[in-house]
Amino acid sequence: MDRVLKLFLTASLLSCSCRCSKVRVPKFVTAIKGTCVVVPCSTTSHTYATWYKYQHYGYPPVYSKDTKDIINQFRGRTSLLGNAMQGNCSLKIDNVRQEDGGISVYVWINPHNIYGDYTEIKVLAPSETRISVESTQVEGTLFSAKCTVRHSCPVSPPLLEWLGLSSVSNEVTTTQDSGGLWVSVAHAQFNASRRDHGKRLTCRRMSDGNTAISDAIHILFPPTILPDSACWEREGSLHCMCWVEAEPNASISWTVDGRSALLPHFNMTNNYTGMTTVSVMTGPTGHFVTCEAANYLGNDTYQMSGFPQLAQGTDGLTYFILAAIVLIVLGIVVLGVHRRMKKRHEHSRGAKNTRGSENTSQCRQNIESNGTQTKVRQKTYEWHKDDNIYANDVSGGHIWSTAMVTSQAPEDEMASIYLNE
Ligand SMILES: *[C@@H]1O[C@H](CO)[C@@H](O)[C@H](O)[C@H]1NC(C)=O
Ligand SMILES: *[C@@H]1O[C@H](CO)[C@@H](O)[C@H](O)[C@H]1NC(C)=O
Ligand SMILES: *[C@@H]1O[C@H](CO)[C@@H](O)[C@H](O)[C@H]1NC(C)=O
Ligand SMILES: *[C@@H]1O[C@H](CO)[C@@H](O)[C@H](O)[C@H]1NC(C)=O
Ligand SMILES: *[C@@H]1O[C@H](CO)[C@@H](O)[C@H](O)[C@H]1NC(C)=O
Ligand SMILES: *[C@@H]1O[C@H](CO)[C@@H](O)[C@H](O)[C@H]1NC(C)=O
């Protein structure tokens, strides 16, 4: 059988007309190492095709129906494409190796016993994977990145994977390039998020691990004031710290009781580190403080307080509820103390101790003034607010000294009580 076949082959080699008209194959194919390559082939409708490696002696099969006949170099890497009934005799060689270069192959068509011309395989080193991405993005918008790879395998283009960011969509298109090669472009879309600011996008060709890495992606976003922001009192003055994340830099402004905080009563310093801005404000205690951060993309405000235990309130309502609870608790305590005092007072009266009675009533007065002190303070500041003092340095200075007197009043009273004794 084999001998008969070879006889036919030899006979056919002599008749050029058969070779040129019945089987169409290219003179050479260009393969990129590591990908597949297709040797296109078309002829008349047939049953099966066998491909051989050309050499001076022998007919080593590159592809055969009988897998065991295939020479080691190609076993497991070759297959036929398309439909033989429709005359398609194309050969696919997977995972092209450097040593496949320079080999010529030809096809034998059964049962017509016609053969094709030689096709030489040229092998090129793989080209670099290329990535392109617009490096500045605004948060919440979609942006796209492209990863390009050149190959010789349109039937199964190299797989590309994106690393670094998770894509919303990914689409691969393959088009014919020059020199019989192909270009596949993976076109992925990403949702810009501040978490990804400064990250790099990587495209990896899975066949050989070749990667392309983008520049750091700059993601712009409006400011957010972090909930770590708070105020506290130390050594009789108020310290407020406002933590802001923004890109580009946020400009920070502070308001105190609804007015812009101004020097010299309030000091403000900003520290910029990456996309975080920390602004510290110091000034006198007992005020409603708000931090405002803005960049060209937007702004954020955060209501803080002079009282650390109330600093968590992010909106006016929360703050109001907390303040109300504190006032109620304070009220109950005052009422309780007041009642106990009253009882004691009655006792003393029963004992007809006039000196003790005087002391107790003075003590009660003191407690009452202490109890109402919070309210007094608030009233004073509301009145300040209406008077627009923070915009005016001179009158501001005056009011602040008034505030100091108010807050010191109870201590003076205490002192006088001790003096009386
Ligand atoms: C042969 O089949 C392959 C795979 O289906 C196809 O890509 C190719 O275009 C076909 N060739 C011809 C000449 O029809
Ligand atoms: C992008 O992400 C933001 C925040 O997660 C989301 O609100 C927005 O709808 C996303 N946009 C798209 C187009 O998926
Ligand atoms: C933020 O602002 C500060 C002060 O204006 C400046 O020194 C710094 O370079 C800015 N950073 C960025 C990322 O724009
Ligand atoms: C700014 O903040 C960074 C990090 O919190 C810190 O290392 C640096 O010393 C600060 N710079 C100034 C001038 O306070
Ligand atoms: C503000 O800072 C200046 C100098 O840095 C200092 O003299 C002044 O006492 C500070 N004022 C307050 C209210 O902390
Ligand atoms: C803050 O943003 C709102 C819209 O989001 C805008 O109406 C307002 O004017 C901004 N305020 C400042 C101080 O930029």
Describe the structure.
It comes from Electrophorus electricus (Electric eel). InterPro entries: Ig-like_dom_sf (IPR036179), Ig-like_fold (IPR013783), Ig_V-set (IPR013106). Pfam families: V-set. The protein has 421 residues and is α+β, with helices and mostly antiparallel strands. It has 4 domains: 123 residues, Immunoglobulin-like (Sandwich); 87 residues, Immunoglobulins (Immunoglobulin-like); 90 residues, Sandwich (Immunoglobulin-like); 98 residues. Helices cover 28% and strands 35% of the residues. The protein contains 5 helices and 26 strands. The strands form 6 sheets. Strands 1, 3, 4, 7, 8 and 9 form a 6-stranded mixed beta sheet that branches. Strand 3 and strand 4 form a beta hairpin. Helix 3 packs antiparallel against helix 4 and helix 4 runs antiparallel to helix 5. The longest helix has 36 residues. The structure holds 2-acetamido-2-deoxy-beta-D-glucopyranose (6 copies). One 2-acetamido-2-deoxy-beta-D-glucopyranose binds next to strand 23. The site of one 2-acetamido-2-deoxy-beta-D-glucopyranose has 4 residues, from loops.
